[in-house]
Write a structure and sequence with these properties.
Elements lengths: L3 E3 L36 H4 L9 H9 L6 E6 L2 E6 H11 L5 H4 L18 H9 L1 H14 L16 H12 L15 E2 L4 E2 L2 E6 L3 E2 L8 H17 L6 H7 L1 E3 L5 E3 L14 H14 L1 H7 L1 H10 L17
Parallel strand pairs: 4-7
Antiparallel strand pairs: 1-6, 2-3, 5-6, 6-7, 8-9
Length: about 325
């Protein structure tokens, strides 16, 4: 079913990147059909060009670099603040009501009314007071760089992110090239204290909601599920176009169900579900095992390179220094 990862499916080296001791041998993962479970994807650990997540100092430098030099006094979500207008804008975007909530069918509140204790006027101080010294800075950084809003305060169902889990999310997002960021301006990336919705157990979905089952996965599996869902976000507006459908011969049968006319192009059995899952799985493979995708499905590799990743390649360590 579109957008869902259910529990039934489970069972360089430049300074910008993590150090790697030579070229990773991913040939053992070249057999797409040999991968039998959706989340058992060792490519995540062995992929070239994995970035080192930023330190607190680096995140603060990034945020301070956003300053325009224009200071404003403004009440934002109930908090009386005085700071640079760009930081005030970010703070407001994180705590005001998401106008798309009604379309998504989720019970968002009308926006958060926050109480900053102890009182402080600056945005960075307010974020730390609301979410913690480290998490507050990390959440503001993620909203700025990746576009995702990880605050739970403006949504009734949302729960606070544990620090370690949000670190896993950020590490996966750092694997994406800067040239395609931000991924989605203002989209909520939420941690939900539930097993799923609509009576179906779930791990995560492309509305960027993470459920309790996600915590039962190891870090590699968590990254796999998140990267798959980010793939869905990038697939919006693309998966129903002939340029994508023709690569695998997607057509609809008499029952209005999608049929993959060229199943040999699927990177995993689950990719045969529909064009959306095909795209998300191909997106994952391009980023985390690009060499295998390039060998096995050069047309899909070229599509991802040109239409999604803006030319960034991850098939060899030698390409890491060229990733924008």
């Amino acid at each position: 079913m579109k957008w869902l990862l259910t529990l039934l499916i489970i069972l360089s080296c430049s300074s910008a990147f993590a150090q790697c001791g030579g070229v990773p041998d991913l040939s053992m993962f070249d057999d797409f059909d040999g991968i039998t479970t959706f989340l058992a994807r060792p490519e995540v650990r062995h992929s070239p060009c994995k970035r080192t997540p930023p330190t607190q100092v680096e995140m603060l430098a990034h945020l301070n670099g956003l300053r325009s030099g224009v200071t404003q006094s403004k009440t934002v979500a109930g908090a009386a603040l005085k700071d640079d207008k760009e930081l005030l804008k970010l703070f407001g975007e994180m705590h005001n009501r998401d106008p798309r909530s009604a379309q998504q069918g989720w019970r968002y509140s009308r926006g958060a009314t926050v109480s900053v204790t102890p009182p402080c006027k600056e945005v960075l101080c307010a974020m730390q007071a609301l979410y913690g010294e480290e998490l507050g800075i990390q959440m503001l950084y993620m909203r700025s760089k990746f576009g995702f809003n990880t605050s739970h305060l403006a949504m009734q169902e949302g729960d606070a992110w544990p620090s370690q889990d949000l670190g896993t999310v950020m590490a996966m997002l750092e694997d994406m090239p800067d040239s395609i960021l931000p991924i989605n301006e203002g989209m909520r990336f939420l941690h939900l204290p539930a097993r799923g919705r609509g009576g179906e157990e779930m791990i995560a979905e492309s509305l960027m909601h993470v459920y309790l089952g996600w915590h039962e996965l190891n870090e590699s599996e968590q990254t796999t599920s998140l990267a798959h869902e980010v793939g869905h976000v990038f697939g919006e507006g693309k998966t129903d176009k002939p340029e994508w459908l023709n690569l695998s011969g997607w057509t609809k049968n008499a029952a209005n169900q999608w049929v993959m006319g060229r199943p040999e192009t699927a990177v995993l059995g689950y990719a045969q579900t529909n064009p959306d899952e095909d795209f998300a799985e191909t997106f994952f493979m391009y980023r985390y095992n690009g060499a295998a995708l390039k060998r096995r499905q050069p047309e899909k590799y070229r599509y991802m390179k040109e239409r999604v990743f803006n030319g960034a390649e991850y098939d060899t360590v030698a390409n890491c220094s060229g990733v924008p």
